[in-house]
Automatic annotation (TrEMBL):
Keywords: FAD, Flavoprotein. The keyword tRNA-binding does not apply. One of its GO terms (molecular function) is FAD binding. It comes from the Bacteria. This is FAD-dependent oxidoreductase. Residues 7-359 form the FAD-binding domain. PANTHER family: BINDING MONOOXYGENASE, PUTATIVE (JCVI)-RELATED, TRK SYSTEM POTASSIUM UPTAKE PROTEIN. Coiled coil: none annotated. Its cofactor is FAD.
Length: 505
């Protein structure tokens, strides 16, 4: 039985978002309990190939800044695509939109002047099981309690606390965050809406044994009736434009059913000998209008769902966690202004909205109908241009994400560039403690004195960097977002205003 304890934060769901959020909160010295429905963290759907997930620049950076990237085996095997493109240019596919590829040699990398050499990769592949294992290990090391086999079934909030029921036991916390996925119970019981659009298709992912794989073409194939993707001769992804009816029926996926869908979409009489693991999904797109109701917050798939086309859901969710963690911790520790927690909504909701539209746009050009085909052809032409390929790469890799913090400087609201100090240290390596930073490239003594009074909250770091990018001083939030910049001669009053805006000190 649980010893009665009032946690700072209870998180429903030990998926990647709940685990990463727990790590961020525990790093900021909050007490955290995760209640997870499943008895075990293992599932064939989390292992390769089903569990393969593409992560883009902001996620790679978030993991890197917390020292977690090197713990992912897959990271060690993959090279940085944008660095490769500086070499004698190799033309290779580095992403897609609606299955339309874009290539490294078409991209104008100079459009992202703040991605310095030494930056992390713009995209990597990871495996859900490995990612969750790494995050759970870190969370436990930081003191987070994870209770598996504890399905949240009820909750009740008052002005002072929140009571959560799981496995007929009662848990009390100051805050509750629903990271419990697309069917979130916290969203339902917490009084949130979930608005959006209904699906166009049922997606299938399946591991099969094909009797005659030569009847299909390897790779992604858009046909008159849908899309099939065959890789390694036994791994299939299908898109059947049935308005999601098969997925919604919740019927089991039988061999006969899958074979029928595959034959219809591929226009062949291919035979499936055996069906191993399989799952369905759709392009239903919904988002909560608000991510907070009193002491309850939402993050990850609990707050937004959309089709996995172009792989953005995990990135979006981990971005929520990075943004929310330090703000909620500061609110709990009374070192936040009233409006700090509100900025979780104002910053993250528009990012979510854009991802939903990006996935809807992909579906719109994949539909098996003449108008979609015509649009698709135009996008293919645009993607072959330098500006087109650069735009699509910027969106897919998450390089264009920037919060509107009310300052026109292109760095304010963006992730901090990975500046390299003259001794070879990289800025991203200095962020593992989760503290805010003031970076002073001019080693200004008066600034050092001023910052000494904030040392509990903000690390003062001074030193010459190899490429200053025209900046002399920067205030960086714990989530790696640049909050304030001075090109030269920092205005101390403006700096203090920024410090009090973000850290209420
Ligand atoms: C086929 C497919 C491919 C994808 N590819 C990509 C990709 O390449 N890149 C990308 O960024 N995203 C991708 N995604 C999306 C990505 O997997 C999700 O966005 C991500 O897993 C969301 O993480 P989460 O932690 O919010 O939710 P989840 O991973 O769903 O975790 C939620 C957790 O909450 C638990 N839970 C549920 N209900 C309760 C309850 N009542 N009480 C307690 N616990 C509960 C669940 O058991 C689960 O452990 C893909 C999705 C699919 C389906």
């Amino acid at each position: 039985m649980e010893t009665p304890q009032n946690y700072d934060v209870i998180i429903s769901g030990a998926g990647p978002v709940g685990l990463f959020l727990a790590c961020e909160l525990a790093l900021a010295k909050c007490t955290v309990l995760i209640l997870e429905k499943a008895e075990t963290p293992y599932s064939p759907l989390k292992k390769l190939p089903f569990g393969m997930r593409g992560i883009s620049a902001p996620t790679v950076e978030a993991l890197y800044r917390r020292g977690l990237l090197d713990e992912l085996e897959i990271h060690k095997r993959i090279k940085e695509p944008h660095q490769k493109a500086q070499e004698p240019v190799v033309r290779r596919q580095v992403g897609h939109f609606a299955g339309i590829p874009f290539y490294s040699s078409d991209i104008d990398y100079s459009q992202w002047p703040y991605r310095l050499p030494g930056s992390t990769a713009t995209q990597l592949m990871t495996e859900m099981e490995e990612l969750e294992t790494v995050l759970a290990r870190r969370a436990i090391t930081l003191g987070v309690t994870i209770k598996r086999g504890f399905e949240v079934t009820n909750l009740n909030q008052s002005a002072e606390e929140i009571i959560v029921i799981a496995k007929e036991q009662t848990f009390t916390g100051k805050w509750l965050v629903g990271c419990d996925g697309s069917r979130s119970i916290v969203r339902k019981l917490g009084g949130f809406d979930f608005v959006g659009t209904e699906p166009e298709f049922t997606g299938y992912t399946a591991q099969v044994d094909l009797a005659d794989p030569e009847k299909l073409k390897l790779g992604r194939n858009v046909t008159a009736t849908g899309m099939y993707l065959l890789s390694q001769k036994d791994y299939l992804i299908l898109q059947d434009f049935d308005y999601g009816s098969f997925h919604n029926s919740r019927k089991p996926i039988t061999l006969d059913h899958l074979q029928g869908v595959l034959r219809r979409i591929s226009g062949t009489d291919v035979t499936i000998n055996a069906l191993y693991t399989s799952t369905t999904w759709t392009d239903r797109s919904r988002q909560s209008s608000t991510y907070r109701n009193g002491r309850i917050l939402l993050a990850g798939d609990a707050a937004h769902i959309h089709s996995p086309l172009g792989g953005q859901g995990l990135n979006l969710g981990l971005g929520d966690a990075m943004n929310l963690g330090w703000k909620l911790a500061a609110t709990i520790k009374n070192s936040a202004s009233e409006s700090l927690l509100d900025s979780y909504q104002t910053e993250r909701h528009p990012v979510g909205e854009k991802v939903l539209d990006w996935s809807r746009a992909q579906v719109a050009v994949m539909k098996p109908e003449p108008a979609a085909r015509a649009l698709n052809a135009i996008i293919q032409d645009l993607m072959k241009t330098r500006d087109g390929a650069t735009y699509f790469a910027g969106r897919v890799w998450g390089l264009l994400t920037r919060y509107n913090l009310g300052d026109d400087h292109p760095l304010v609201g963006s992730g901090i560039p990975n500046f390299e100090f003259e001794d070879g240290k990289l800025v991203g390596q200095l962020m593992q403690d989760g503290k805010a930073m003031l970076l002073d490239f001019e080693m200004n003594d008066s600034l050092k004195n001023i910052m000494s009074k904030y040392e509990d909250h903000i690390s003062y770091i001074s030193g010459k960097v190899k490429n200053q990018l025209g900046v002399s001083v920067m205030l960086v939030r714990p989530d790696g977002i640049v909050a304030w910049v001075a090109d030269n001669n920092p205005d101390v009053m403006e700096l203090q205003k920024a410090i009090s805006r973000w850290f209420a000190i």
